[in-house]
């Protein structure tokens, strides 16, 4: 049987594209072999223009294509070659299985993280020319409004966008930041924009995260770790999506009439680094309560334990949490416990049984039941998603 020829027109300069490629490689390793073709590296033909995409595709004689959106997308789809498409400018195409993010859920997770940090002022920094940025903004605002936090500021329009360079965008963002109330939690549409915000804050000597907490999307470690201070970011299930891209293409190459519809990329968890590592609440009882919960989350602490620690009545404590954080003390304990479980799942090789004992569950089954109820996914499947997204 002839080995299928698959063209990969997927950029690898960002974490999203690299993780998509890892997923494709994982599928091919167990279901291939496939022969992969990509545009040649720049150094192989210095000073010469790359072969045009359409010419490249025709020369290879491809059986399938996995690609990101390009100016030639419509022409490529018209060739009738089975195609999986990740779009970023135009949301809907016909003639391909599309890769799309659950952007509202991404935005909602970002807002939730900043709410849990005790911020009262919120902002979203994106770019309105991208549909996915707009959807992330809507998810962010909806979650903030649900928490009855109305002061949400938005930056998504820029001067001379066609000719703006990074330096100009940073200066413009600095002008915007200086108009915002402090302290403030800012979510950005991607890690690149989070880096811009961090650099913009430095111009006015604003402290991160004390004055401005910043949260990005994609968990691109090259960007997040090279930025000072390091950036917190939302990890996406891009590697799993890459696996599904290859699986769908495999079916399409065998049965061109097959149409699954869409491959959805979901937010997995937040990788916290320095840029959001703070509690912004300014009420001593709440600050003390949050620190107590965080320091003792691996014990079976109760709401009464928290109230006793801060020396106020349980009723008064509940009222403070409802007014300031829009959630109960019990809900905060539950959220912090879930975050600690995710940290162990993503950063250690501990078994579910070992994690259940550390966190204070009576047995592994109790931990599994709690996790599935809160995340809507089993421990085993979640860890598989986490591990598949790592280098």
What are the defining features of this structure?
391 residues; alpha/beta; Rossmann fold; Arc Repressor Mutant, subunit A; six-stranded parallel beta sheet; six-stranded mixed beta sheet; 48% helix; DNA-binding transcription factor activity; transcription; Homeodomain-like_sf; transcription regulation
Outline the structure in words.
This protein is α/β, with parallel strands linked by helices and 391 residues long. It has 3 domains: 5-101 and 238-267, Rossmann fold, CATH 3.40.50.2300; 103-236 and 270-276, 3-Layer(aba) Sandwich (Rossmann fold); 284-388, Arc Repressor Mutant, subunit A (Orthogonal Bundle), CATH 1.10.10.60. 48% of the residues lie in helices and 14% in strands. The chain has 16 helices and 12 strands. The strands form 2 sheets. The protein has a 6-stranded parallel β-sheet with strand order 2-1-3-4-5-11, covered by helices on one side. The protein has a 6-stranded mixed β-sheet with strand order 7-6-8-9-10-12, sandwiched between helices. Strand 6, helix 5 and strand 7 form a beta-alpha-beta unit. The longest helix is centred in the C-terminal third of the chain and has 19 residues, at 329-347. It is globular and about 75 Å long. It starts with a strand and ends with a helix. The mean pLDDT is 89. Residues 287-385 form the HTH araC/xylS-type domain. InterPro entries: Homeodomain-like_sf, HTH_AraC, LacI/GalR-like_sensor, Peripla_BP_I.
